[in-house]
Amino acid sequence: MLGGIEESAAEAVVQNDLTQVVFDERRIRALAQAGQKLSRCARVHLKLDTGMNRIGVRTEDEVRTLVRLIDS
For 12-27, how does the pLDDT look when each residue is reduced to its tens digit (9 = 90+)? Predict the structure, then answer.
């Protein structure tokens, strides 16, 4: 799913085995909690900002931080 989701939709995303674009800690944590609740892995795609300044991770430090969070 492209674009962000509200935290309340995280459970439906995991339940339906969708791959969700993520670009911030809040959404990653919501999906992780939903995955734990449902005993399933949340599938994610880390969105990088490619220069259009809309959504996505912008710096290398942000990428590292979010990848560590996803891996955990």
Answer: 999 999 999 999 999 9
